[in-house]
């Protein structure tokens, strides 16, 4: 998650108060057109308070979405959603989210992918999973329990979307540990002003990873429920997102980065051959 939130919150408040001061000064001093010295004083005071060249916080757009209490403000900012509540049939002896890749749980790998570029991280889980999951991620992560009456992926996603006020959310399954942070940033860029963005990989449109407009995706979840569809692809189809073409995807990442791990065998198969992204915790 972005680390400069305090600076940006301060900057927002400072901007509001400084602009008020500058406006008031302009009202009081510039009405006398002949008195140019008053204008000079006003201009120099603005320079001293709002154009400090050492203040780089204005360049940090992401953290301006965080209010003074550390919560994501409505209709601004980014959330990261990790879908981890599903059954682990392919991992009969351990929760899939806790299965180790290079001695690091899959959940920690996916958390490391999203944390640098989002304002908050939301992990879906069952109530009985929360304690174990909390031990392998940072304290700042939020856990959202899958609804008791919703056992399908659509309900899991909707619960996460309902828990955030961010404008856009990156959605990753817990079994996708190889995706680089930079590619998720690319999806955020393509989703801007759209309902979402997903990649096309080797001629096939993917439903995850995805970046979605939170309100639009929440509405799509409702539509999917009314249509009695329960899958994430059904929700993404309702969104009609921008599809990042194969050529663009291939220029940024290899197809193997989209590998999804659902079984012990799949996990064992990638360990000797994988190319580890730089953002993963064991790098």
Which superfamily, in CATH terms, is the homologous superfamily of the largest domain?
Answer: Spore Coat Polysaccharide Biosynthesis Protein SpsA, Chain A
List unreliable stretches of 5+ residues: 2-68, 70-75
User: How would you classify the helix and strand content by structural class?
Assistant: alpha/beta
Q: With helices defined by DSSP (H or I, 4 residues minimum), what is the helix count? A: 10
Report the strand count: 10
Q: Give the C-level CATH assignment of the largest domain.
A: Alpha Beta
Reported for the largest beta sheet, the result is: 8 strands, mixed
Tell the overall outline.
Answer: globular
Average pLDDT number: 78
Report, as a whole number of angstroms, the end-to-end distance. 18 Å
Please render the helix and strand layout as text.
Blueprint: H1 5-29, H2 36-50, E1 78-83, E2 100-101, E3 104-105, H3 106-114, E4 120-125, H4 130-134, E5 142-145, H5 153-162, E6 168-173, H6 181-191, E7 196-201, E8 204-205, E9 210-213, H7 214-226, H8 232-239, E10 242-244, H9 246-252, H10 264-270
Parallel strand pairs: 1-4, 1-6, 4-5, 7-10
Antiparallel strand pairs: 2-3, 6-9, 7-8, 7-9
Question: Could you explain how this protein is built, in words?
Answer:
- By secondary structure, the protein is an alpha/beta fold.
- It has two domains: 51 residues; 193 residues, Spore Coat Polysaccharide Biosynthesis Protein SpsA, Chain A (Alpha-Beta Complex), CATH 3.90.550.10.
- 39% of the residues lie in helices and 14% in strands.
- The strands form two sheets. Strands 1, 4, 5, 6, 7, 8, 9 and 10 form an eight-stranded mixed sheet that branches. It has a two-stranded antiparallel ribbon with strand order 2-3.
- Strand 7 and strand 8 form a beta hairpin.
């Amino acid at each position: 998650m972005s680390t400069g939130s305090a600076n940006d919150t301060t900057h927002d408040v400072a901007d509001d108060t400084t602009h008020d001061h500058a406006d008031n000064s302009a009202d009081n001093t510039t009405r006398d057109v002949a008195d140019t010295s008053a204008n000079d004083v006003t201009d120099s005071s603005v320079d001293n308070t709002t154009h400090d060249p050492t203040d780089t916080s204005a360049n940090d757009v992401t953290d301006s979405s965080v209010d003074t209490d550390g919560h994501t403000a409505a209709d601004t900012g980014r959330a990261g959603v990790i879908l981890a509540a599903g059954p682990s049939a392919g991992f009969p002896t351990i929760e899939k989210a806790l299965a180790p890749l290079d001695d690091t749980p899959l959940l920690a790998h996916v958390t490391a992918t999203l944390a640098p570029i989002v304002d908050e991280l939301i992990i879906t889980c069952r109530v009985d999973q929360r304690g174990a999951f909390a031990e392998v991620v940072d304290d700042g992560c939020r856990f959202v329990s899958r609804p008791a009456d919703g056992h399908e992926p659509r309900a899991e996603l909707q619960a996460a979307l309902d828990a955030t006020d961010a404008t856009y959310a990156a959605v990753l399954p817990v079994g996708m540990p190889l995706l680089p942070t930079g590619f998720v940033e690319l999806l955020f860029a393509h989703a801007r002003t759209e309902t979402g963005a997903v990649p096309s990989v080797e001629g096939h449109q993917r439903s995850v990873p995805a970046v979605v407009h939170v309100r639009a995706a929440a509405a799509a979840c409702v539509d999917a429920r009314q249509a009695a569809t329960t899958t994430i692809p059904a929700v993404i189809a309702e969104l009609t997102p921008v599809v990042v073409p194969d050529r663009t995807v291939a220029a940024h990442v290899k197809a193997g980065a989209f590998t999804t791990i659902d079984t012990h065998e799949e996990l064992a198969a990638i360990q000797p051959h994988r190319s580890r992204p730089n953002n993963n915790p064991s790098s």
